[in-house]
Design goal:
Layout: H1 10-21, E1 28-33, H2 39-51, H3 65-71, E2 78-81, H4 100-109, H5 115-121, H6 133-143, E3 153-158, H7 165-176, E4 182-188, H8 196-199, E5 203-207, H9 212-223, H10 227-237, H11 241-249, H12 251-269, H13 273-283, H14 288-309, H15 320-329, H16 338-353, H17 358-373
Parallel strand pairs: 1-4, 1-5, 2-3, 3-4
Helix pairs in contact: 1-2, 2-3, 6-7, 9-10, 10-11, 12-13, 12-14, 12-17, 13-17, 14-15, 14-16, 16-17
Length: 375
């Protein structure tokens, strides 16, 4: 991956490149940024630049043998560690290499993926991934090998906060006494869950959320969106490129949810019970996953309308169409009813998730909203 493929972060890229030009490469570095910020993408681009055989002024060349292997994530001196768990295929003591094929495919497709998407791809069901004791032995084994082709062995550890105590302490010893020509790149979303002794021994790069202008430009160039649509999505994504991608994929569903939400609220406000029963019949036919998505969407719009009501516009994330509706509707979401409405929607979501009879759930929700909406 080249730096030019990473969305935004011009100053961070320059700082990373300068560490190499000025021969100030720290053996342990921490790329700290929130989900979708591009911290993993930056770490991979930096690793490729370190190993590039024909470094350019502002990026790796992209065509030398090293870069070609990095683009496929198969360079013999590049190693990855990431949280894993048991699955249908891996029954016991899983380590990162058990899932290396899925990892390479996932990162090549989308280096901005989040951990929930990763767990979904490796089919660990409802289990949370960890970096375990067994993984620490694998790290030690790999780093004791000599470099094959590059000057450095590079170990990228995604979400080091998922290390258990044993693995964390093993890593600490390696960072304190690193094997020769070894580079640790830790990619974290929550430094508070990393032991302090590791933090104190790493060079920190704080990766901010992606700025709106860079996000808009990427969405226009990569997805062919109009500037207006890209602006809407960039605002909603709030610096999270993974979320922006999800918003693009769910645009059709969001249109449906918007139409259903506005109809639901209007009928509730007008107390049109017969029409609401027809609405309940319709929403009950769309399937449980879509029903949960509708309720999640409704929760978001209630929250944004409340922010509008209390005139806290800096925290409002709405598309142009949603904002036009909410400018008028937000007066009905106030301190007297917002908690009740939020609770009712949350309960409906929970009930649908627990396989309750959907018509009863939505009829009960509608009757509650009728009562609450005019408070």
């Amino acid at each position: 991956m080249q730096f030019k493929e990473v969305v935004g972060h011009k100053k961070i890229k320059e700082k990373l490149i300068n560490t190499i030009k000025e021969n100030r490469v720290s053996h342990a570095q921490l790329f700290l940024g929130s989900e979708g910020s591009g911290n993993l993408a930056l770490a991979i681009a930096y690793a490729q630049y370190v190993s590039c055989e024909n470094k350019q002024e502002n990026d790796s060349c992209g065509v030398c043998p090293s870069c070609i292997k990095f683009q496929k994530l198969v360079h013999p001196d590049l190693h990855f560690v990431y949280p894993v768990s048991t699955s249908k295929d891996i029954k016991k003591d899983p380590v990162s290499d058990d899932y290396i094929t899925q990892w390479r495919e996932a990162i090549i497709e989308n280096p901005y993926l989040n951990q929930n998407k990763w767990y979904e791809l490796i089919d660990v069901e409802n289990k949370q991934g960890i970096i375990s004791k067994n993984e620490s032995y694998e790290i030690l084994r790999k780093l004791n090998l000599k470099t094959f082709e590059s000057e450095y062995k590079i170990m990228i550890i995604w979400l080091p906060e998922k290390m258990n105590a044993f693995a964390a302490n093993k890593l600490l010893k390696l960072i304190e006494e690193p094997p020769a020509k070894t580079l640790f790149l830790l990619v974290s979303e929550n430094s508070e869950q990393i032991i302090s002794t590791i933090l104190s021994r790493t060079q920190l790069f704080k990766i901010p959320k992606i700025d709106t202008e860079s996000m808009m430009s990427a969405l226009c160039d990569r997805f062919g969106l109009s500037p207006e649509k890209a602006g809407d999505l960039a605002h909603l994504a709030n610096g999270n490129y993974f979320e922006a991608q999800n918003l693009i994929n769910s645009a059709e569903e969001d249109n449906y949810n918007f139409e259903q939400f506005t109809q639901f609220m209007r009928l509730s406000f007008q107390r049109k019970v017969i029409d609401l029963i027809d609405w309940v019949d319709e929403i009950s036919r769309i399937g449980r996953e879509k029903q949960k998505n509708f309720l999640s969407y409704s929760l978001r719009l209630v929250r944004e309308n409340f922010m509008l009501n209390i005139e806290n516009r800096n925290l409002v994330y709405l598309t142009k169409k949603e904002l036009e509706f909410s400018e008028k509707f937000s007066q009905f979401i106030n301190q007297g009813n917002v908690y009740g409405i939020y609770e009712a929607l949350n309960k409906a979501h929970s009930d649908i998730e627990m396989n309750a009879y959907n018509k009863i759930v939505f009829l009960d929700l509608a009757l509650k909203i009728i009562k609450l909406i005019k408070n």
